[in-house]
Every structure is written in structure tokens, then in C-alpha cells.
Design a protein that fits this description.
The protein is α+β, with helices and mostly antiparallel strands. The chain contains 5 helices and 9 strands. A 5-stranded antiparallel β-sheet has the order 6-5-9-8-7, with helices on one face. Strands 2-3-1-4 form a 4-stranded antiparallel β-sheet, sandwiched between helices. A hairpin with a 6-residue loop joins strand 5 (about 115-125) and strand 6.
């Protein structure tokens, strides 16, 4: 089984090595490491690890948190591509085919943000009614009739309990949601990450920057 493990760890030499050793001692094979956020003496890393099917994921948490200062933020099954497409490659694809830019954005974002799906939705100007502009293959089929948090002026974590109402299908499996404007406040990119982890400020900044670049290219 392959899992995505998000950890908060002290930003000091040797900590990541100690973490790798602790996970390896439990039979975990680290396939990739991505730095999500760094600052104030700590770092947030995403580790894709492979475990024997006979070993429960709880072992990963126990092993990781046995390393001094390490906290596991979340662990979930991972089925994404290991050779994650980087932002530059997506931007280059959009530049080559600007007429498909919004669709390429929706299809490419899940791999960049280790999420399950993404879609682009747009307010129609008739109250809070919206239409779907583009979506990735795994996006929920349920379409929103209205999204009262549109227009959106900046990238944000969507909290259905805090006023960001969305279709129930979008929040299945404890899905974490984030959204960013795509060129104008009426159009938003929505990203879903079932089972977490929650979107961090650095990820919102990346999402906003990427959506802005694509919108500029598309015009």
C-alpha cells in the first residue's frame, strides 16, 4: 500500500534522516519527499511511502512521532502519480494550447497539489447561480446550482460549516477544499483533497499564483 504522510518536523540537520530511518525500520519505503512549507524553525513535508499490505498505516504514525519533535498531521492512502508534474510544465502546456488553458489547469492541479480532483466554476451573474467551466476526471459529477461565496477575491480554504456552502458530494470522505480566483472574482478553481491534509497558507499562495498565470495566458 502507498500512503501520503504529512509531517511537521523541526527544521534542523538530521531530522529528516532520523525520520527516514524510523520509517524504514518499520518496513516503509520512502518514494518521494516534497517540502510544503518552511519557517519559524519548523518544516512541513509530504512523504509518499510504500508499506507492506500486512502493515497498518498506524505504524507510520507511531514510527514518525518516535522521532523527537516530529508530529504527523495526516496519513491517507495515495494513488497519484509519483512523477508529479511541476507548475512550469503545466504553464508551458497552457502556453502551447491557450484555447484549452482552463481545462488543462483543472486536469493538472490535482497532481501538483496531491489532491483527488479539481474543477473550475463561474458565477453567471444571475444571483448566485454558477456553471461548471472545466473539471478533472475524478471531480464529483454533482454540479452546484449556486455558490454564494462567489465572487472570490483571494485564494481561501472553503469551510462548509463556516459559510462556504457547496454540494454535499464535494465534501464526501472528509474532503478538504480550497479555491482560488482564475483571472476574475467570478471564476474560481476548486480543489478537493479527500481525507486531508488541510490546505496550508503556502499551498494557497501557490494555487493563487498558478491560477493567475494561467488566466493571464488564456486572456
Amino acid at each position: 500500500m502507498t500512503y501520503l504522510l504529512r509531517v511537521v518536523l523541526p527544521d534542523r540537520p538530521g531530522t529528516l534522516g532520523a525520520l527516514a530511518s524510523a520509517l524504514g525500520a518499520e518496513g516503509a519505503d520512502i518514494l518521494s519527499v516534497d517540502v510544503v512549507e518552511r519557517g519559524a524553525g519548523s518544516a512541513v513535508d509530504d512523504l509518499v511511502v510504500e508499506m507492506p499490505s500486512s502493515r497498518p498505516p498506524d505504524v507510520l504514525i507511531t514510527a514518525a512521532e518516535a522521532v523527537r519533535g516530529v508530529v504527523v498531521e495526516s496519513v491517507r492512502p495515495f494513488a497519484g502519480a509519483l512523477d508529479t508534474t511541476r507548475e512550469l510544465e503545466l504553464v508551458e502546456a497552457v502556453a502551447a494550447h491557450p484555447e484549452q488553458g482552463v481545462t488543462l489547469l483543472a486536469e493538472g492541479v490535482p497532481g501538483l497539489f496531491r489532491s483527488a480532483w479539481a474543477l473550475v466554476t463561474e458565477a453567471t451573474g444571475e444571483g448566485a447561480r454558477v456553471r461548471r467551466v472545466a473539471s478533472s476526471a475524478a471531480a464529483p459529477e454533482t454540479e452546484a446550482a449556486e455558490l454564494r461565496w462567489l465572487p472570490l477575491d483571494k485564494a481561501t480554504v472553503l469551510d462548509p460549516a463556516g459559510g462556504h456552502a457547496v454540494p454535499e458530494a464535494w465534501t464526501d470522505l472528509d474532503t478538504e477544499l480550497a479555491a482560488a480566483p482564475v483571472g476574475r472574482p467570478e471564476r474560481a478553481l476548486v480543489v478537493g483533497r479527500p481525507g486531508g491534509p488541510a490546505f496550508r497558507p503556502s499551498e494557497l499562495a501557490r494555487l493563487s499564483h498558478l491560477a493567475g498565470i494561467v488566466a493571464t495566458i488564456v486572456g
